[in-house]
Structures are given as C-alpha cells and as structure tokens.
Design goal:
Blueprint (H helix, E strand, L loop, with lengths): L1 E5 L5 H15 L5 E10 L8 E9 L2 E9 L2 H28 L7 E9 L4 E6 L4 E5 L17 E9 L2 E9 L8
Parallel strand pairs: 1-2, 7-9
Antiparallel strand pairs: 2-3, 3-4, 5-6, 5-8, 6-7, 8-9
Helix pairs in contact: 1-2
Length: 179
Amino acid sequence: MEIHWHGPRFLDVDRSTAEERLRALANDHTDLVDVRIDARLTAHHRHGGQEVRIAGTSRGQTIVAARTRPDLSMALREAVAAFQREVWRMRHRRTQRRDETIPHPPELGIVDQVFSDRGYGFILTDGGERVYFHRNAVHGGIDFDRLAEGQRVGLNLEGGVEGPQATVVVPAPPDIPSP
C-alpha cells in the first residue's frame, strides 16, 4: 500500500502515527492499494479552517473520510479514525456477502411432462403431488427446451388457480439422493 501526502506540512509525529494506523489496516489484507491524504485550509465558519480528506482505493472502490477542525493534528486523527471505520465496514459487508448461502428449494421432484411448444409442463414432487410449471419459472442454468422427462429438479411451490404450481425450478442439488 502506498500513502501519498498533499497539502500543508504535518508534524512528523502526527504523520508517523497516521501512517502507522493506516499500515495496520493493510496488515494481512491486500485490498487497500493506494491512500491519499489531502489537507487544506477552509473558510468553514463552524469547525475551523483545517480540513483533512483521506481517500483510499480498494478493489475498484473508493473509500473516503474527511474531517474539518480548527487544529490540523485533530483533523488528521479524526479523519484516520473515520477512514479505519469505513474500511472495517467495507470488509464486514464483503464477508457478510461471502457467508450468505443460496438456499436450496424446499421441494424436490422429477419432470413428468414437458410441452415445449406451449411453454409449460408438470413435475411429480417427492411427496407424490403433480405440479404445474411455466417456462418462466425455470432457472439455474436449465434450458426449458432441453428439459427431459425423468430429470431431477428442485422447486418452490405456491398455490395457483387450479392447484399448486412451481414458481422456481432449478437443478436438484447433487448430494441429495432420489426417492
């Protein structure tokens, strides 16, 4: 990770402390590529005149934190703390998405009949129920026109006008045996 400093001169102690905290974010991680720290004087009437803005690039995403305070050292410390929180949030969101699993459909069955020219068919569930499905319900890499009778599938059921119908038809999980 590279750190680039721009703007007014920071005290050496502030600069080394900030770099230490930012480099600690990169330990055991390769997601932070480049960090830019900009400081400038502002005419902001409430928070004083020193703004520090930290922008970091992480896997095509830019993370930004900025603080304006009367003292440049205080603005730098608070901006670094805010930047750390944003990086931790980004990493947490990324691990949350990774831990999400796609649920398997609650029902399993075998394709009973397919009417390719009409765009629908029927499935016999493992419970022995005959269920209607439309070509728009077929997902997960299955080609409706290539569905074969006897093919094992997973499905979600919903009450239809004339009885139960499959709202989603996907390939059956490979680890589940036939009944």
